[in-house]
Design goal:
Elements lengths: L27 E4 L3 E7 L3 H6 L14 E7 L5 E9 L3 E7 H14 L6 E4 L4 E6 L9 E3 L4 E6 L17 H10 L36 H9 L5 E8 L11 E4 L6 E11 L2 E9 L8 E3 L7 E4 L11
Antiparallel strand pairs: 1-7, 2-5, 2-6, 3-4, 4-5, 7-9, 8-9, 10-13, 10-15, 11-12, 11-14, 12-13
Length: 312
Amino acid sequence: MCNRYDMSANPVPRSPGASEATAPLTTGTVLLDHLALIRVEGADAAAFLQGQFSSDIDALEPGAQQPGAYCNPKGRAIAIYRLLRDATGFFLVLPRDLADAVVRRLTMFRMRAKADINLLPNARLVGVLGSRAPAGLPTWKLDEQRILAVQEDGDPAQPDGDAGAWLPEDQWKLATILAGEPQVYATTSEAFIPQQVNLDLVGGVSFRKGCYPGQEIIARVRYLGKIKQRMVIARIADPGVTASPGDGVFDTERGEQKAGQVVDAVTVEGVCWLTATLPAERVEDRDFRLGAADGPALVVQSMPYEVTTGKD
């Protein structure tokens, strides 16, 4: 059974400003080879995806984009995607290590829907950070700092500016982390419900659309309970220490009982920046550590949007 509700939410405290640090972001263009492109098109493509994904595909106009999750029946994200719509169909952007599994699953549930689902092995995705979009390519604006462009065949032309060089992919990953956007990989597939990683706060979950896998559980968490974990942005205090998706996060108050886990992480100029799920209460006055209760300290940063926990 699918349910629709509408209730207000309560804010989670943000970390103190004294913990903030400036991230080393650079403008330019990035070849996003860690991401794959799946093409979905056909007369029933929109209706088919509407019944599979957490975002509202019917509300997506050609030229627009949206994040979302492809969930299992228990409401856990198999994959988190960025959906790009054009005049004839959709590009589904997601980590390369999940692409084959997602194509197989979508194909299995396609039934008689008139929708073609194909991985595009020769397509290249280009990310633009605070710079000009590549000429001649279809583009989708994510926010004021980030643009995605798709080249379906061949290699994209070299960037015009920035000394004619591609930026490292780590710059795009850092920008994504600082935007408070989640991602899952093969190692963390089916580990999180969308609310744990703030996907509902960045436009990736519709609570007004019809049924999709996991919808009832996702709605129940939002409206009939309180979200116990939320995603935060943090950096590791010790230079040179790195983290990986799925690594445990611990609270010194709770000893060896794991408090959460790393969602995404990247190291730029010797500093590891990450997103992690943590208990939604009292984040600002707790001592979180990576890997163990006596591991490297995490410095929680302010979020770029208001974080909520659900009903009282």
